[in-house]
Automatic annotation (TrEMBL):
Transmembrane segments: none
Superkingdom of source: Bacteria
Name the UniProt record assigns to this protein: DJ-1/PfpI/YhbO family deglycase/protease
Membership in a protein family: Belongs to the peptidase C56 family.
Domain DJ-1/PfpI: 6-169
Entry keywords, A to Z: Hydrolase, Protease
CDD domains: GATase1_PfpI_like
InterPro entries given in the database record: C56_PfpI-like, Class_I_gatase-like, DJ-1/PfpI
Any GO BP: proteolysis
Amino acid sequence: MTLEGKKIAILLAPRGTEKPEFVQPKEAVEKAGATVVVVGLEAGEAHVVNNDLDPGATYAVDKAIGEVSAAEFDGLVVPGGSVGADKLRGDEKVIGFVYDFFVQEKPVGVICHGPWLLVEADVVKGRMLTSFPTVSTDIRNAGGRWVDQEVVTDKGLVTSRNPKDLPGVAPDLLLRRPA
């Protein structure tokens, strides 16, 4: 399956998104043929991090969260990084954007600490997912079922625990419609 003709949003938090959790999925989805739009709290540039605190490279943010809607996209990628995920989950527009992908039954891929946004958007109840282990209690408290697996798919939601799991996530998973 290719992603030709598909438009995927990927979130990027300023000084907080983990570099491999942003770069690897972005490159994989682009290689599969999709157009990727980087969405951040504001347009311009954002710095990624390594190991939550070490500075990383700078990447362009194509659109500010206030300039986009889920209706424009075929899927969403939510990278992790505890600092980045925490910054993103504190923004109502980001949470509304994430929520709308679930309302519209569009595929969503989430990595590491990214499920914090799903908890905030109140979309984990009754779903099975994975994450970085320290997010497991939040997922359970929100009504989700946390499992310690490399990759978990549930009704159009694809989750992974950390950057080491990313090779197990095929880009085409992002386009599988909820069952």
